[in-house]
Design goal:
Length: 326
């Protein structure tokens, strides 16, 4: 965690682009395989088709910009359909997340179908009546996933292991945004990173553009990478993504994601990883677009695990409350 923070302070932009392109795909592929070995933390793993459809709905409007889809994207019907799907992606993500609550508890269709309907209604109500719903929708597969869900996963693991080091890690993770805010930043120190290259790459990341607008580091609708606010914002983004990826590989003995990986599976994973990294090196824009689809797939597949972590933490807190009151 400290190493991620130090490197993020030194090279915040390049670190993020590097880890997203290199560590990101190997994390996505190994975690998807690990989730599959554990039935995706569902009572009935056959419902994974639902999350595959959710991934397609959320990711394809972005992936449609790939050259291979250029001949169909410009068709009026397809263009209209993509616009409509994109306008509902927040509802789709909220529905998928709420439905994960049912999937970790129930197996029967008589329970799951009503739960899916209720999840859809909740998703619709939240997007219509919660003021910050669209912000949550943007951050759910990005900052919430790599920072909040990582923290919840750490808390759930620390509760089970009762590790003092785990408690210290959680405290440090919570304090990191405040530490970054307190660090004195001189934007001139980051001029060597190449402003034009940074700006062209940042345009691929919608959530960075949104954060730039929110923290007033935009000018003429363009991200200004070399202001103190923008640099600190990017330090936080680089740190969260780097630590999110490294945390996965540093907890191999605890998570055990490598234990059931056969040689064939490992070979396929490494081959796919090399292909994704090579594609990104050849053309970052195209590589990012493909990676976006893989990232959304692993994020959505992880929803039941996220809900299970929240359930474990809630159960622990309720149990502690009962002991205290007793």
């Amino acid at each position: 965690m400290l190493a991620s923070l130090v490197v993020a302070v030194i090279v915040p932009f390049r670190l993020f682009f590097l880890v997203y392109a290199v560590l990101g795909p190997i994390h996505y592929l190994t975690e998807i395989n690990w989730l599959r070995e554990r039935n995706y933390f569902m009572k009935d793993k056959r419902w994974i088709w639902f999350y595959a459809l959710v991934t397609a709905a959320v990711a394809f409007p972005t992936m449609s910009f790939l050259p291979v889809f250029s001949h169909i994207r410009d068709l009026p019907v397809v263009n209209h359909l993509l616009y409509q799907v994109k306008s509902y992606d927040d509802i789709i993500l909220f529905t998928a997340f709420f439905f994960a609550i049912g999937l970790i508890h129930f197996r029967k269709l008589s329970h799951l179908i009503p739960f899916l309907i209720v999840s859809l209604i909740l998703g619709k109500l939240i997007t219509e009546y919660l003021v910050f719903a669209f912000i949550i929708g943007i951050f759910l597969p990005t900052i919430i996933h790599v920072y909040i869900f990582t923290m919840l996963f750490m808390i759930a693991g620390t509760i089970k292991s009762k590790s003092k080091l785990g408690v210290a890690s959680i405290v440090l993770l919570v304090l990191t945004p405040l530490i970054i805010l307190a660090i004195p930043i001189d934007p001139a120190d980051y001029l060597r990173t190449g402003t034009e290259e940074i700006m062209s790459t940042v345009r691929n990341f919608e959530f960075i553009q949104f954060l730039g607008e929110y923290f007033n580091v935009m000018q003429n609708k363009q991200f200004i990478p070399l202001t103190a606010g923008a640099v600190k914002l990017q330090i936080f983004i680089a740190f969260t993504y780097t630590y999110h990826y490294l945390n996965w590989f540093s907890k191999t003995s605890l998570i055990g994601w490598y234990q059931n990986v056969s040689k064939t599976q490992l070979s396929v994973i490494l081959l796919m990883w090399a292909g994704l990294v090579g594609l990104t090196m050849y053309d970052y824009g195209v590589g990012y677009t493909v990676l976006f689809g893989v990232a959304i797939l692993h994020i959505v597949f992880e929803f039941p695990l996220n809900v299970a972590s929240i359930k474990d933490i809630g159960g622990y807190l309720i149990g502690r409350g009962r002991l205290s009151s007793g």
